[in-house]
Specification:
9 strands, Spore Coat Polysaccharide Biosynthesis Protein SpsA, Chain A, alpha/beta, nine-stranded mixed beta sheet, 2 domains
Length: 287
């Protein structure tokens, strides 16, 4: 059976970076896909980008969303997807030319495969493997960033997509991809890692933050990790390690203010997320 992919790109604020991603998609060796751009900008800055994508021969759909929320934008794309396989390229990532061909081939050859994690080249490497809940509950295994994830659309819809309480533009500022993986694995999804399928995303560290900015940015993202500790049946030692390790290492960073701010942000944020999730603190923190 020949399958088709829907690539859901949620974007806000960027323009030039999207052109690089579009160029990599136009160079794919297999063209059985659509690009769904979920535009969270308040203006028309992406109209030329969409026009250019279409001029390059891409089947490109341009959806608008007024509320900035990454997971909500991705879920909008999931609901609108016409392909049997759905993936989530970031607006500043790019694919190697055979990504679509290889990913679709894996799903076509393995009817039991529910999801596929591919290799994020800049984040390291690992051996091919089937992914288990036990492994992911220990935060082991390959990096499962959104850019590396391919799912059967029907399985993702049945799971409810991404939890909009997590991720960018929410109080729990990260963790949505790991949350989805843990949920699917707990439900018995068959997931595999294939390092031969390669995607790219630069590893750019923020160097312009003030110490306060570093603390707040780290704290916000760490709340997402803390929420995972509270939401999923992770091993108790994993939760204890995650909550305590930033504090244990804090005194060793006193001579490095930036590292100290990051460690403090991790400690505070993970604790807030863990406690907040147990207190049913959701979305904007007001319910």
């Amino acid at each position: 059976m020949s399958l088709r992919a829907s690539l859901v790109m949620a974007t806000l604020g960027r323009v030039a970076e999207i052109d690089r991603c579009v160029d990599s998609l136009a160079a794919q060796t297999r063209c059985d896909f659509e690009l769904i751009i979920v535009d969270q900008n308040p203006d028309d800055r992406l109209v030329p980008v969409v026009d250019r994508a279409r001029a390059l021969g891409l089947a490109c759909r341009h959806l608008r969303q007024q509320e900035p929320n990454l997971c909500l934008a991705r879920n909008t794309g999931i609901e609108c997807a016409s392909g049997e396989i759905v993936a989530f390229p970031d607006d500043d990532c790019w694919y190697e030319p055979d990504v679509i061909e290889q990913a679709l081939s894996r799903f076509e050859q393995q009817a039991e495969l529910d999801g596929l994690v591919v290799r994020w080249c800049e984040a390291g490497d690992a051996a091919p493997q089937r992914i288990s809940f036990d492994e992911f509950s220990r935060f082991a295994g390959p990096p499962a960033s959104s850019i590396t994830l391919f799912f059967r659309t029907v399985r993702l819809r049945a799971a409810g997509g991404f939890d909009r309480a997590l991720g960018l533009h929410s109080w729990y500022g990260a963790g949505e991809e790991t949350d989805l993986m843990l949920k699917l694995l707990r439900e018995g999804a068959w997931m595999a890692f294939d390092p031969q399928i390669r995607v790219h995303h630069a590893m750019v560290a923020s160097t312009n933050d003030s110490l306060r900015g570093t603390f707040e940015r780290t704290r916000r993202r760490a709340r997402g990790t803390g929420a995972l500790y509270g939401r999923h049946p992770l091993p108790k030692w994993v939760v204890a390690r995650g909550l305590l390790s930033p504090w244990l290492g804090l005194p060793f960073q006193l001579l490095n203010p930036s590292a100290f701010a990051r460690k403090l942000g991790l400690g505070v944020g993970r604790f807030e997320g863990f406690v907040g999730w147990h207190l049913n603190y959701r979305l904007d923190g007001n319910n």
